[in-house]
Each structure stands twice: as structure tokens, then as C-alpha cells.
Amino acid sequence: MIKTIFKFFIFLFLIKFINCQKDKDLNFPFPNLLGEFDSGYSYFPMIDNLKLHIRCYTNKQISKNDGENLLFDSGLPLFSTAYGNVIEMLLKNNTMNKLKISNACFFDRYGYGWSELSPVALNSKQFIKKLYASIQTIPSINNSKYYYVGWSYGGLLGQTFATLYPNLIKGLLLIDSSDIGSLYDPKWSFDNITSQIDFILQSVVPSPKEYIEQLTDFGIITLKQGWMDSNTSLPKSCVEKTQKIILNSYDNYYLAAAQELSQFIPNAMFLKSQYEKIPCKPLGKLPLVVISSNPVEEPDWYNRQIEITKLSSNSIQLNSTDHFVPINQPDLIIKSIEILLNKN
């Protein structure tokens, strides 16, 4: 009789737990980026009481020591879902085998996607050290060397990683990357950054979610601010998950954007100080591929991409149609990865 009662309570507990999980799923989706049949595996390493989400797609035919390991970082304020098309292309047509890739891992910086929000804004050095510690907890990629794929703000962080851990980075793919030139760009002046942060903290975060949805309908919050409408050319699962995360009740997404904006110029200054230690070709012979957006639309930005290419004597520059290369030109990302891997 006691066993029967005990089993009954266990049954009630499991039903309650399952229902809680279902309720949680409605508000915050699981990170199977491509949908139900996504073959990736998500890790949540905890470093200094902060959880980072890293989703890895592992090629079981090539060990981490015999193949290449890639880390993918997104632009501000996007996260791993923005690489959905790239992930699909890596998994199709035996691409990872052809390029001898062991692992392709896509992470969400703190506060984005499935990563916890830091209680305080982290500078680039602090973040990279936590990222390094995080990947060392994952058996499929720890104690390895990496190719860092950094898009926009993620490109600035990729460059920082290469200066802090030069013996761990085998190459950089910088996609329309932010750089130390931001220090001289009027768009990134103190007043402009402050106004962006104020808009997020005073107008967006306190507002009801219905108001946020109206801002997206009116085109005030767009892909540039991370919002993906139903016509975004990504796997449906990526679009839906992005929308749920941006509209969730925790506001982590917006607060993370405000935190990173507050550190943008200090991070560019830190990278500049790193490069000043080696004035000529500070990245040496590191394999480097730079993807640059249309020079006609933003010539100053394009010229800065040329300067990034000069950081290494082993570099090449390719052109894209716009800034959102992983979404709109995933084939160019795959082509660039192939070029990068062949440079070693």
C-alpha cells in the first residue's frame, strides 16, 4: 500500500514537472536550432556562476585532433539562430567531411539566446576569458586549436581572442567586422551610444510586449536590432525561436544589447592597445579571410575592412552584397571557410 501511494505521488510530480516544462517551452524554446530533427548538441558550461550556451555540430567520422574545430560568433544583437542557413549548408552534401571539420560550434554571448545575462556588463577581455574557460569544459572541443568566425561585433571579439590566445587560434574569418576604426566613427560617438542605450532601457525594456510587437510591425525594430519577421530567409525554426526569445518576459535580450553597447568603445580601445604592441602586421602570418559589404553604400566602412585585411600577411578580402552575410549569403560563408582552412 505504501509503495502504491509513493508511486502515485511520484506520478503526480512527473505530471507537474512535464506540464511545467511544456509551459516553459511555450515561453522559451529549446535550442534545437533547425527544428525537431536538429543533430546538434547544446552545452551550458557554468563559469563564475554564469551559464553560456554553446551548440555544437560534431562530425563523428573525424576526431577533434584529426579535423578542424570552428567557433561561430554573431553580430550585436543577433545570436546563434542567425547562422541557421550556414548550419544547414555545413550539414548537407557531406560538407563537414569535405572540409575536414570535426566540430562547428555556435555560441550565444551572455544575455542572448540561451545564455544567462551577466549581472554587470563584461568587457571583451573578461568575455573572451570566460569563453575560453567554457570551451575547455566541452570534451569534443577542449584542448584544441580553433578557427574563429566572427560577424560584425563578433569579429572584434574574434580579433581580441586571437591577441589574448594567439597559440589557440588557427585562423580568423571576419564577416563585415567591427574594428578599432569605431573609435573614430561618428556613428559610435559617446552621445550616439548613450542615446541607443537610453532608448533600450527607457523605452523598450519597460514596455509591454504588445508594444514591442507594434514596434516590429511598424518597422522601428528590424533585423538591425535583431528582430526577424516571418519573411526572414532562415529556417522557420530559427525565425520562430528568435521571435520567442526577443519577446520573452525576462528582457535579457535588450539588457544584453545595452550592456554590449556600453562596452563597445572600451573594447575597441583595448584591441587597439593589443595591436600597438606589434605595430607591423600584428596578426603575423595568421590565416585571415575578411568579408566586406558593398563599398558603394558605406565606403568608409569598406575602407576599414581593407585595413583589417592588412593585419596579417596571410589574408584575403572577399565582397558580399550586404551586412547580413550569414543570412543572405551562407554559400559565401562556406566558400570563405574553405579558403581559410586551405591557408594553413
Automatic annotation (TrEMBL):
Protein name per the record: AB hydrolase-1 domain-containing protein
Taxonomic lineage: Eukaryota, Amoebozoa, Evosea, Eumycetozoa, Dictyostelia
Signal peptide residue numbers: 1-20
Originating organism: Dictyostelium purpureum
A Pfam family matched in the record: Abhydrolase_6
Keywords of this entry: Signal
InterPro entries for the chain: AB_hydrolase_1, AB_hydrolase_fold
Stretches assigned to the AB hydrolase-1 domain: 105-332
SUPFAM superfamilies hit by this protein: alpha/beta-Hydrolases (SSF53474)
